[in-house]
Amino acid sequence: MSLNGWIDLRSDTLTQPTEAMRRAMYEAEVGDDVYREDPTVRRLEAYAADLLGKEAALFVTSGTQGNLAAMLAHAGRGDEVILGDRSHIHIFEQGGIAALGGIHPRPVPNQPDGTLRLEDIEAAIRPENIHFPRSRVVALENTHNLCHGSPLSVPYTRAVADLAHRHGLQLHIDGARLFNAAIAQGIPARALAAPADSVMISLSKGLAAPVGSLLLGSRAFIEEARRARKVLGGGMRQAGVIAAAGLVALTQMIDRLAEDHVRARRLAEALATMPGLRVDLERVKTNIFYVYLEPPRDAHAYREALKAHGVRVLAMDAHTIRVVTHYHITDDDITQAIRAFRAALHDA
Ligand code: TLP
Q: How confident is the model over 112-131, as pLDDT tens digits?
């Protein structure tokens, strides 16, 4: 059992720093990053900007802070953001864009593959009218967490960017798992980032860094985001100690995400054969998938039964559990997890 004694499939956020990260953290050169004097943070930002093909980058405390700082940089009070009704920004970030930024969310339906239909986006863009907020940003999510970890393609992203730009809007990508999307499609992450005006990537999920995300975009955008990060309390001082782990994440941990995808697939295929469980295998493409429990089975009871067998998952609602593979889940863990899922069906 790999993570604190559990086969813990609740999230890739649970990953712990590798030995190489811990060493790099110990050895990190630091300075005061609010004065822009932390050499390790500067190295991380430069490396990430180059990797993603953007002019500049900003190290932020979390994905949530990165998305919020991006929205604050792109839009002001009374402006509107078009986003998916199942997006992380809309569902899981406390409505921060509205609560803290006065920015109005305009949700449009996420399709099962995580996309927003182009015609829905276009219909949601406001014409100039004194009654309306002003549309400023379209936000996509890649991979899409609540839509089965679906990766969005380059042509789709480009089509959304073209539409947004035609109407004078910016495109933001919540790319907390952008590298999973890239690996799943066998393309460089920079190709997925290219059409967007801003991108957030997380270091602390599948890449296993303990803390941190990055925001990427033009130099002017990053300067605005840097101001936003400060007012959000995200101006960090000797942050090089955590940025050092981020550098290891970006240089050593991207390619191995493919293993997480293979293991998720193997587990999903096994679960799909178990009576009472349903998995849409078509949609299992990265490290996140959802399992539907046929009624009257209850997801919370099944979660507890799995726990008794050493496996942890998240119950999303009465009929759905989420499974996420990551750095601490081995082939043996998958074998054991398959046994546990089968055994727990008899207990719950
Ligand atoms: N996702 C977490 C939870 O918040 C749900 C998880 O366990 O999956 N964007 C996306 C697409 C995310 O999945 C997450 C975290 C974030 C942003 C926020 O990142 P953090 O947790 O660093 O604020």
A: 999 999 999 999 999 999 99
Query: What are the C-alpha distances in Å from 180 to residues 206, 261, 287?
Result: 8, 8, 8
- For atom 21 of ligand 1, the residue with the nearest CA is 63
Q: In this structure, are 122 and 155 located in the same domain? A: yes
The CATH number of residue 299's host domain is: 3.90.1150.10
Contacting residues for 220 by C-beta, under 8 A, at least 6 apart: none
CA of 194 to the centre of ligand 1 (A): 22
The response to whether residue 198 sits with its C-beta less than 6 Å from ligand 1 reads no
| Distance from residue 296's CA to the centre of ligand 1 (Å) | 30
pLDDT in tens, 221-262: 999 999 999 999 999 999 999 999 999 999 999 999 999 999
CA neighbours within 13 Å on the CB side: how many for 208? 24
Show the domain range for 93: 19-252
DSSP code of residue 116: B
